[in-house]
């Protein structure tokens, strides 16, 4: 069992006041709340902070924890922590057990120290029926998955009660169908795949939020794709038909004569498929051939002499 | 690790999924009165005029559950939760727009 430094988790000194603990908790809870936070490990952090606060906000638990830390830490910080016998002698955790958060998610460490009393207290207080906690996970998918659909295996850590009522963590693999036409930010709800309920309460749900992996070519906004397409100066000036990649295959794109750099061309309906499919916007980027040989330099010099061209005319200089 | 080969097909919470008030309150395990409060606050917007005709787009399910968690975990009231959700939507839009403008961001 791993020793948890609740003070470190909360980012407070060991001699801090109850008020400061409360303030630190409020701040961290906002920072890591899974509905608000964009941090990758938000859910995990939020649970840790909740667990730390559960102990530190209750002066009795806090004093007991401090004593335990003094007695135990010297010998075995980190892995392999075992609370000394009778560490809790003389304390009565009257604080009412788990008062907020998702008690099923607390660590083994918490569980072995405060678990039994708390669970009994809770069982006495409430009618024993509670909906299981919902879970959230972010799933990284390839852009191509949105065009063709895919099946992804995701691995989740789920706390679970074993036969003796102890909390253990179990890795759970789920195969999930990613339907064609999925967009970033969309949520897939898997009914009943969250934490099991208490008593005969229903299980929570699992929400999967889709996110595209960074794509080397395309940028995605809603159903639309953006592609930077390099073109030669003469292709942009004279017009040309050039090969252009799209997720559903290479196409021939006609560049009109006199195209400026940054010109946006729309390929209608070739974005992410749907009833109203998205578009692909091809953004022209004029690529300059390097002047790295005498011939190339001669050509640039010829242009310089023969073009009456001031690229900064629009700036009034 | 436990694994099986079953392929789960979830429900995409988009405009194609429409839930009645009863379905939404059952899916969220929350009282229907409370959902009506959320409608009054403008947090979720059903289609249809009469309560009996209300149909909620799928994403409402997520928003309702979010409000429940925000209230429970952060002590946010309904008006506060409405602000949080609106700002989250805006941030999401800005992020994706920024990404299109600045590919290296």
Low-confidence stretches of chain A: 94-101, 121-126
User: What pattern of helices and strands is seen along the backbone of chain B?
Assistant: EEEHHEHH
Element-level helix/strand string of chain A: HHHHHEHEEEEEEHEEEEH
Please, what is the average pLDDT of chain A?
A: 83
Structural class of chain B: mainly alpha
**How do the strands of the widest beta sheet of chain B line up side by side?**
3-4
Please state the overall shape of chain B, judged from the principal axes of the Cα atoms.
globular
Question: What is the first-to-last residue Cα distance of chain B?
Answer: 37 Å
Through-space gap between termini of chain A: 72 Å
Largest sheet of chain B: 2 strands, antiparallel
At CATH's second level, what is the architecture of chain B?
Orthogonal Bundle
In the sheet with the most strands of chain A, the strands line up as 6-7-11-10
What name does CATH use for the topology of the largest domain in chain A? Helix Hairpins
The CATH superfamily of the largest domain in chain A appears as DnaJ domain
Number of E-state strands of chain B: 4
- In what range is the share of β-strand residues of chain A? 15-25%
- Principal-axes geometry of chain A comes out as elongated
Poorly predicted regions of chain B are none
Structural features, described:
The complex is a heterodimer of chains A (317) and B (105). Chain A is elongated and about 90 Å long. With 317 residues, chain A is α+β, with helices and mostly antiparallel strands. Chain A has helices at residues 6-10, 18-32, 42-56, 59-73, 108-125, 143-148, 233-238, 294-306, and strands at residues 135-141, 150-161, 167-178, 187-190, 206-212, 218-221, 224-231, 240-244, 251-255, 264-267, 280-286. In chain A, the strands form four sheets. Chain A has a four-stranded mixed sheet with strand order 6-7-11-10. Chain A has a three-stranded mixed sheet with strand order 1-5-4. A two-stranded antiparallel ribbon of chain A has the order 2-3. In chain A, helix 2 (18-32) packs antiparallel against helix 3. In chain A, a hairpin with a 6-residue loop joins strand 8 (240-244) and strand 9 (251-255). The model of chain A is unreliable at 94-101 and 121-126 (pLDDT under 50). Chain A folds into three domains: 6-125, Helix Hairpins (Orthogonal Bundle), CATH 1.10.287; 135-212, Urease metallochaperone UreE, N-terminal domain (HSP40/DNAj peptide-binding domain, Sandwich); 218-315, Sandwich (HSP40/DNAj peptide-binding domain). The longest helix of chain A is centred in the middle third of the chain and has 18 residues, at 108-125. Chain B is mainly α and 105 residues long. Chain B has a single domain (18-101), classed as Multidrug-efflux Transporter Regulator, Chain: A, Domain 2 (Orthogonal Bundle), CATH 1.10.1660. Helix content of chain B is 53%, strand content 8%. A two-stranded antiparallel sheet of chain B has the order 3-4. In chain B, helix 3 (59-74) packs across helix 4. The longest helix of chain B has 24 residues, at 78-101. Chain B is globular, with a radius of gyration of 17 Å. Chain A binds chain B through residues 26, 29-30, 33-36, 46, 50, 100-101, 131, 134, 151, 153, 155, 170-177, 179, 182, 184-191, 193, 201-202, 205-208, 219-222, 226, 228, and chain B through 1-14, 27, 29, 58-59, 61-62, 65-66, 69-70, 72-74, 84, 88, 92, 96-97, 99-100, 103.
